[in-house]
Amino acid sequence: MADTSILSSVKLRIGISDTIQDALLNDLITDAQDRIMSYINQDGDVALNDLPGATNWIVKDIVIKMYNRIGDEGKISSGESDISNSWESIDLSEYANSLDQYRKSSLRRRSGMRFV
User: Fold this and answer.
1) Is 109 exposed, middle or buried (0-12, 13-18, 19+ CB in 10 A)?
2) Does residue 59 register a pLDDT over 80?
3) pLDDT at 115 over 70
4) pLDDT for 17-50, tens place per residue?
5) Dihedral (Cα; 59, 36, 32, 96), 10-degree rounding
6) Distance between CA atoms of residues 85 and 100, nearest Å
7) What's the burial of 69, exposed, middle or buried (CB within 10 Å: 0-12/13-18/19+)?
8) Fewer Cβ neighbours under 10 Å: the N or C end of the chain?
9) Which residues contact 78 (CB under 8 A, 6 or more apart)?
10) What local confidence, expressed as pLDDT, does residue 116 receive?
């Protein structure tokens, strides 16, 4: 089950005060956490087993984007009369600066001189 503080925060941000959509939101939270863990651990050996708490803001951001797309999955843009909508892809590279610090490969790429 997803972190209740993340669930509460997401519900506050999207304006939900009941529990009717909690199962859906928990599923989206789990999916977002899995995506982030996959990004962090993509270097092969598992670097982390649990997400650092400092990534919660990324989880919330991704969940809200996924929630707002429900029913419009796969659409890039749409328009009606004078109103036009477009959806950005949920790409973790947007969060790379924050997530790379947890990746094993980024630890090997520290700046500075290295003598071999």
Assistant:
1) exposed
2) yes
3) no
4) 999 999 999 999 999 999 999 888 887 665 667 8
5) 60
6) 31
7) middle
8) C
9) 72, 84, 85, 86
10) 47
The answer for residues whose C-beta is within 8 angstroms of residue 45's C-beta and 6 or more apart is 104
**Is there a contact between 84 and 77 (Cβ–Cβ < 8 Å)?**
yes
Nearest of 61, 36, 60 to residue 47 by alpha carbon: 36
d(CA 50, CA 110): 23
Tokens of 99: 């997530």
- Token couple for 25: 């939101």
Give the pLDDT mean for 76-102: 75
Structure tokens of 46?
């598992």
